[in-house]
Design brief:
The relative contact order is 0.15. The chain has a single domain, classed as Hypothetical Protein Ta1238, Chain: A (Up-down Bundle), CATH 1.20.1200. It has five helices and four strands. The protein has a two-stranded antiparallel sheet. A two-stranded antiparallel sheet has the order 3-4. A hairpin with a 5-residue loop joins strand 1 (16-18) and strand 2. The protein is mainly alpha-helical. It has helices at 30-49, 54-74, 94-108, 124-147, 154-174, and strands spanning 16-18, 24-26, 118-119, 182-183. It is elongated and about 50 Å long. The protein starts with 15 loop residues before the first strand and ends in a 7-residue tail after the last strand. Pfam families: Cob_adeno_trans. Residues 7-174 form the Cobalamin adenosyltransferase-like domain.
Length: 190
């Protein structure tokens, strides 16, 4: 259980912050950039939820919880033997990625194949899901960049990759199963 009875600590006033393992790094560190962008992604999913109902809202709620798991994963560098520790760090696992894949397959089954690229938009829910998709792609790029220099849980990167796909398909579902998608017309305004 997390207890936060004081929000400001003043410990970051000099431009550094603590990672999940207690190490202090610059707030401009690649790891902080990656998990900070996951936090931004979670906020954009929260905006989408303002327009979601039923199973879509439930699925987005699960994703928001996963994104906190993902932030916890990314804010703690991998360490040898951590899986055997008395209290192993929280890591994204394959089952979370597989759940996204199954949900993508279910949603996509009711959609017509695309014949054009889609412009982000349609209704409010779809537009917010497209925004979340682009933030997910940025978070993925930052996690991949971090992984070039430090060990990163591969499932965390897979989760971000699959989540952007999930958000794309969900936006199509939100647009009346693709019927209200806004299609790109190449060169339309020449």
């Amino acid at each position: 259980m997390v207890v936060l009875n004081r929000i400001y600590t003043r410990t970051g006033d000099a431009g550094d912050t603590a990672l999940g393992n207690g190490a202090r790094v610059s707030k401009a560190d690649a790891r902080v950039d990656a998990y900070g962008t996951v936090d931004e992604l979670n906020s954009t999913v929260g905006l989408a939820r303002l327009h979601a109902t039923g199973e879509m809202d439930s699925a987005l709620s699960r994703i928001q919880n996963d994104l906190f798991d993902l932030g916890a994963d990314l804010c703690r560098p991998l360490a040898e033997g951590e899986a055997e520790a008395e209290h192993p760090p929280l890591r994204i696992i394959a089952a979370q990625v597989e759940r996204l894949e199954a949900e993508i397959d279910t949603m996509n089954a009711g959609l017509e194949p695309l014949r054009s690229f889609i412009l982000p938009g349609g209704n409010a829910l779809a537009a917010h899901l497209h925004l979340a998709r682009t933030v997910a792609r940025r978070a993925e790029r930052l996690a991949v960049a971090l992984a070039r220099h430090e060990a990163v849980n591969a499932e965390a990167i897979r989760y971000l990759n699959r989540l952007s796909d999930w958000l794309f398909v969900a936006a199509r579902v939100a647009n009346d199963n693709g019927r209200d998608d806004v299609l790109w017309v190449p060169g339309a305004n020449r």
